[in-house]
Design goal:
GO molecular function, one term: GTPase activity
Bound molecules: guanosine-5'-diphosphate
Membrane topology: Peripheral membrane protein
GO biological process, one term: SRP-dependent cotranslational protein targeting to membrane
Catalytic activity: GTP + H2O = GDP + phosphate + H(+)
Helix content: 40-55%
EC number: 3.6.5.4
Number of strands: 8
Length: about 300
């Protein structure tokens, strides 16, 4: 958490500085409120949430009868935290019930950081002494399975894959889940291919992966990985995937490389699904649980 704060603040301080400068104006008139909304929009908070935030701040300034900058800054912090919604359940469902392994599907378009996230998460689980199997269901590129296997080897976890490029992703996923069940593993984590060019194809493929895997054990978690640096594009992806599978959590990667952390708010608002994890770099330790208050403090730092 300490690291999350440090890493975010460097890249996101733009938003905080901009807002604080605006709130410190002698008089907060309509122009200033408009500029505040504009600043929130620029940080990718999304139109709806930005507008709601400004409205609730305006209401509070009126009701509480103060526009003292320190006070308004405190209100801003509180309203931002409310918007990020600490009440959402951010616990990962990694365990199955009884003999069933927990089944985690990791979905998202190519290049967003799926495989890296699977590797980082595997490392955390191994450190917690969980037993785990990885499934390389991105069978369209041999390199994808190689990359997953490299992560698996690094943390000492077996990767189930097909040697054959273009093999059926669902059969690899099934095989991985079956292996996990046979070996009594706690969890099987399945890396999938995401090709958005063809929504019907994606729907078929992910739908089938899920259906076939569920012949072995219920899917406990579907993590959608979104690259925070892609802004509105990430939103478009999120909506498409949400139509295809029932997303249970968002992983927002590359937050280390953007000043637009507000995308957290926009995506949760749009999908009604919590951000559960954030990626803060390319290294094996650069994954953290998402902490709403720490995140807002980092934004406002
Ligand atoms: P996939 O195609 O979705 O599986 O994406 P990859 O896991 O291969 O990641 C694509 C690139 O993004 C790689 O170069 C990763 O090292 C990089 N990457 C993944 N997560 C992060 C992150 O949180 N921060 C940064 N800076 N880079 C990341």
């Amino acid at each position: 958490l300490v690291r999350l704060r440090a890493r975010l603040s460097r890249s996101n301080s733009m938003l905080g500085k901009g807002l604080l400068a605006l709130l410190s104006r002698e008089k907060i008139d309509q122009d200033v409120w408009d500029e505040i909304e504009e600043t929130l929009l620029m940080a990718d908070l999304g139109a709806g949430p930005s507008q709601r935030l400004v409205e609730s701040l305006q209401t509070r300034v009126r009701i509480e009868g103060t526009d003292d900058p320190a006070h308004v800054k405190q209100m801003l912090r509180e309203e931002l935290i409310r918007l990020v919604d600490p009440s959402m359940d951010r616990e990962l469902a990694l365990d199955g019930a009884g003999e069933d392994p927990g089944v985690v599907l990791v979905v998202g378009v190519n290049g967003v950081g799926k495989t890296t996230t699977v590797g980082k998460l595997a490392r955390v689980m191994v450190a917690e002494e969980k037993s785990l199997i990885l499934g390389a269901a991105d069978t369209f590129r041999a390199a994808a399975a190689d990359q997953l296997q490299t992560w698996g080897n690094r943390v000492g976890v077996r990767t189930v894959r097909s040697e054959q490029e273009g093999a059926d992703p669902a059969s690899v996923a099934y095989e991985a889940a079956e292996t996990a069940r046979r070996e009594g593993a706690d969890t099987v984590m399945i890396d999938t291919a995401g090709r958005l060019q063809n929504k019907a194809g994606l729907m078929d493929q992910l739908g089938k992966v899920k259906r076939v895997t569920e012949k072995v054990a219920p899917v406990t978690e579907v993590l959608l990985v979104i690259d925070a640096t892609t802004g509105q594009n990430g939103m478009v992806q999120a909506k498409v995937f949400a139509e295809v599978v029932n997303i249970t959590g968002i992983v927002l990667t590359k937050l280390d490389g953007t000043a637009k952390g507000g995308i957290v708010v926009a995506i949760q608002d749009e999908l009604g699904v919590p951000v559960k994890l954030v990626g803060l770099g390319e290294g094996p330790d650069d994954l953290a649980p998402f902490d709403p208050e720490g995140f807002v403090d980092a934004l406002l730092d």
